Prior knowledge:
Blueprint: H1 2-5, H2 11-37, H3 39-42, H4 54-74, H5 78-96, H6 102-121, H7 128-133
Amino acid sequence: MLNRFWSTRPLSLDLGLLAMRVALAVFMLPHGYSKLAHFTERMDNFSDPLGIGHLPSLTLVVFAEFFCSILLGLGLFTRFALLPLIVAMATAAFVVHAGDPFGDKEKALLYLLGYLGLFFTGAGGLSLDRLLKK
């Protein structure tokens, strides 16, 4: 009965996942908010690395960087929220900055590794996902 309410995982693991989740979300939010705030100005000339058009590319990046970051920070639908973020950072690192020096793709790679780590571990016990499971 106690296991229904108390996790058998160490609290340090849940705190580490919480810190990683919130930090990645908070650090990514300004990138997404900037694109959202200047959406109409950027929609005609935003990068189109996948050949789907400027507007769809911008829309998908704003969805990932802003809206999915909010879900990530809350730990709500975490793995689903991470998928667009993983795609966005992989595209930034391996398509947009493919020919650039390592320093230009370093930030995208760091985000990508953090997102992949969270995708494989899940949000942890200190998340809304955990509350929804109960």
